[in-house]
Amino acid sequence: MASIARSASQSIRAASRRAPSALAKAAVKPAQTASYSLLARAAAAKAAQRAPVQGARGVKTLDFAGTKETVYERSDWPLAKLQDYFKNDTLALIGYGSQGHGQGLNARDNGLNVIIGVRKDGESWKQAMEDGWVPGETLFPIEEAINKGTIIMNLLSDAAQSQTWPTIAPLITKGKTLYFSHGFSVVFKDDTHVIPPKDVDVILVAPKGSGRTVRTLFKEGRGINSSIAVWQDVTGKAKEKATALAVAVGSGYMYETTFEKEVYSDLYGERGVLMGGIQGMFLAQYQVLRKNGHTPSEAFNETVEEATQSLYPLIGAKGMDYMYNACSTTARRGALDWAPIFEKANLPIFEQLYESVKNGTETRKSLEFNGRSTYREDLNRELEVINNQEIWRAGKVVRSLRPDYKPESE
Ligand SMILES: NC(=O)c1ccc[n+]([C@@H]2O[C@H](COP(=O)([O-])OP(=O)(O)OC[C@H]3O[C@@H](n4cnc5c(N)ncnc54)[C@H](OP(=O)(O)O)[C@@H]3O)[C@@H](O)[C@H]2O)c1
C-alpha cells in the first residue's frame, strides 16, 4: 500500500523527534559501529527463533490455500553476510518521506553504507537532519547522492520520480542498480516517461505497510512483509540483490511478484479496503446512526472504536471465522446474513476501481495532483476536512478516555 501513511510521515518523524529510542539515538553515530550491529543482530536472532518455519532455513515454497508460492526469508541473510554482500556499495536513498525514513534508518542500523539525497533545504532535508543524517557526509542534494551511490533507491514521491527523471536518468550509469518501492514509475511509463537505462539492474522492494511500520517492526526485532520483483536483470544477480536489499531495509519475509502485479494490487488496495473503502464504510454507517438519533459517542463506538480496538485485531490474529466465533450468536447470525449483501453491493465498485487502476486513470490523477508544487498544502487541506468531521472529532474524545491515553498533540 504505497501511499498509506504518506500523510502521516510528518507526525511519525515528529513522534521520533519527541521520544527517540535507544536505537534511533545510536543511529546518529556513523555506520558500522558495534551498537547498530548488536541491536540488529539481537533483533534478527529473536525473529528467527519466532519464525514459523517448516523444514530447513531458507527459501520456501508454501501452499497458500491451494496455490504454491515461493517465499524468501530474512534468516537467509544473517547480518554479517548482509554487510559483506554490500561492503562495496553505497545505498543512495533518494527522497525522505515515510519510506525513506523507515528504510534508510533500518539499513543504517544494519550497518550498511547509506546516504540520503533530497532537495537542499526542503522539508525532507530538515527532517533527515533531525534523524541524524549529516550534510556533506550522509546527506546530499539529489544529483550528488546519485553520483556517489551504487544502488540508487528512488523513494521520491511517485509524481516526483516522473518529474525529476530527465535529470536523474543520465546519472544512472552502467554498473549502478536502480531500486524502487513501487511499480508505478516504470509500469506506467507512457504517463511517467520513466524508462530505465538498458544497462542497469532494475529491482523492486515494496514493503507492505507504511514507512512507520517498516521502522517500528524492525526496532521490535520483527520484519515487515515485502514484495520483491525484477524489471531488468543485467547482471544475473538482480533477484538476489532485491532479496538482500529487502532484508537490509527491514523486511522479514519477501514475496515474489512482478512490477505490474505489485502496482495494480497496491493502488487498488489502498483505494479500497485499506484506506478509501474503509473510510467510506465508516462514514456511511456513522451517518445512518446519527440520522436515527444515536449520540456521536454511541455512533463512533459502534463504528470505529469496537472495530479497531476489538474486532479487527481478532481478524488479524486468527482470521475472520475466529472473530465471528468471539462474538455473540446474535451478531454471528446477522453478520452472516448481511455479508453477502455488502459483497454484492461492493463488487461492481471494486471492478470499477481495478479498471481505473489498470487503465492508468489513477496514475494520471496522482501525477497531476502530487506533481503540484503545492502538493503538501493541498493534501493537508483535504485531510483537515476529515479531521473536522464529527465522526473523527467524536473519536478524539472517545480515545481520551482510554486508560493508556496520551494527549495526541504530544
Ligand atoms: N508510504 C508508504 O506507505 C509506501 C509503502 C510502500 C511503498 N511506497 C512507495 O515508496 C516511494 C516513496 O513514498 P513515500 O510515501 O516514502 O514518499 P512521499 O511522501 O510520496 O514522497 C516524499 C518525498 O518526495 C520528495 N519530493 C516530492 N516532490 C518532489 C519534487 N518535485 N522534487 C524532488 N523531491 C520531491 C519529498 O521531498 P520534499 O520534502 O523536498 O518535498 C520527499 O522526500 C513511492 O514510490 C511510494 O509509492 C510507499
From TrEMBL:
EC number of the protein = 1.1.1.86
Give the binding site residues for Mg(2+) 2.
D266, E302, E306
Identify which top EC class this enzyme belongs to.
oxidoreductase
Q: Name one GO cellular component term.
A: mitochondrial matrix
Keyword Ion transport listed: no
Write out the annotated subcellular location: Mitochondrion
State the free-text cofactor note: Binds 2 magnesium ions per subunit.
Q: In which pathway does it act?
A: Amino-acid biosynthesis; L-valine biosynthesis; L-valine from pyruvate: step 2/4; Amino-acid biosynthesis; L-isoleucine biosynthesis; L-isoleucine from 2-oxobutanoate: step 2/4
Q: Quote any Pfam family the record assigns.
A: KARI_C
Q: Where does Mg(2+) 1 bind?
A: D266, E270
Q: Which residues form the KARI N-terminal Rossmann domain?
A: 67-257
Mind telling me which InterPro entries this protein's record contains?
A: 6-PGluconate_DH-like_C_sf (IPR008927), 6PGD_dom2 (IPR013328), KARI (IPR013023), KARI_C (IPR000506), KARI_N (IPR013116), KetolA_reductoisomerase_fun (IPR016207), NAD(P)-bd_dom_sf (IPR036291)
Keywords, ordered alphabetically: Amino-acid biosynthesis, Branched-chain amino acid biosynthesis, Magnesium, Metal-binding, Mitochondrion, NADP, Oxidoreductase, Transit peptide
Picking any one GO biological process from the record gives: isoleucine biosynthetic process
Q: Could you say which residues bind substrate here?
A: S328
| MF annotations from Gene Ontology | ketol-acid reductoisomerase activity; metal ion binding
User: For this UniProt entry, what is the primary localization, expressed as one broad class?
Assistant: mitochondrion
Q: Matching NCBIfam families, A to Z?
A: ilvC
UniProt protein name: Ketol-acid reductoisomerase, mitochondrial
* Organism of this sequence: Hebeloma cylindrosporum
